[in-house]
């Protein structure tokens, strides 16, 4: 409200048009975060609705106004404990561009699944072949991996944090085709590697090491950091 006072308090409310209000948002976007802009926009909407009820204006200048999204730097994303966890459409496109140019083994499959499913890294690492339904193009998410020591052989599988986290997610067909190829490759490799590893861990983890043990979440986070920096 103070921001609105500062910029438009002296303007008669009937003189505020959709165009002038949009220009205000564009100007504020240079100095305020996206969350702040959303709060300002919501407050302005309340003011304009009150003015309509009092017959001071007939139309709400805020209707169909667009909140500008300025491009964030990597430093800004990493410095924000909340925003660093989520990528908007443009940021996701940039990340995929880096992914296709700098991917290591399993990076494409890992990050496409994360992006299109919304699952957590621990849930990703806990995925097994039986969790994938290639007929319905779904993934069944009902467990996560926990490994306090970061020793690949000392993992445990636990239910997700809340009962609401147990879910079946619909996946893009192209992503599922990518995973189908990975499952086939894993099955073929398993037949050969059982000869070389006496303790081969035959649990059909989707993202597994040569000896069958699952990767841990730290690996996913390290790969993510590498791609962001590239």
Would you mind describing this structure in some detail?
- By secondary structure, the chain is mainly alpha-helical.
- Helix content is 48%, strand content 7%.
- The strands form 2 sheets. The protein has a 3-stranded antiparallel sheet with strand order 1-2-5, with no helix packed on it.
- Strand 1 and strand 2 (138-141) form a beta hairpin.
- The longest helix is centred in the last third of the chain and has 24 residues, at 173-196.
Q: Which stretches are poorly predicted, pLDDT < 50 over at least 5 residues?
A: none
Count of DSSP strands = 5
Euclidean distance between termini CA atoms: 41 Å
What is the approximate shape? elongated
* Range of strand content: 5-15%
Q: Which structural class should the secondary elements be placed in?
A: mainly alpha
Features:
230 residues; mainly alpha; three-stranded antiparallel sheet; two-stranded antiparallel sheet; 9 helices; elongated
């Amino acid at each position: 409200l103070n921001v609105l006072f500062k910029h438009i308090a002296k303007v008669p409310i009937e003189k505020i048009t959709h165009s002038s209000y949009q220009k205000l948002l564009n100007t504020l976007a240079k100095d305020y975060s996206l969350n702040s802009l959303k709060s300002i926009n919501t407050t302005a909407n309340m003011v304009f609705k009150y003015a309509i009820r009092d017959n001071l204006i007939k139309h709400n200048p805020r209707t169909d106004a667009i909140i500008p999204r300025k491009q964030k730097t990597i430093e800004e994303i990493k410095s924000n404990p909340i925003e660093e966890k989520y990528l908007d459409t443009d940021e996701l496109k940039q990340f995929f561009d880096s992914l296709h140019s700098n991917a290591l083994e399993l990076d494409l499959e890992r990050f496409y699944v994360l992006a299109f499913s919304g699952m957590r890294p621990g849930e990703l690492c806990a995925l097994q072949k039986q969790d994938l339904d290639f007929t319905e193009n779904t993934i069944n998410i009902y467990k996560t991996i926990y490994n306090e020591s970061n020793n690949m052989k000392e993992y445990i599988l636990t239910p997700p944090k809340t009962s609401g986290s147990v879910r079946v997610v619909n996946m893009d067909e192209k992503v599922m085709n990518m995973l189908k190829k990975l499952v086939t490759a894993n099955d073929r490799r398993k037949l050969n590697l059982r000869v070389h590893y006496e303790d081969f861990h035959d649990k059909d983890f989707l993202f597994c090491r040569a000896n069958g043990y699952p990767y841990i979440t730290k690996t996913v986070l390290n790969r993510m950091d590498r791609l962001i920096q590239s």
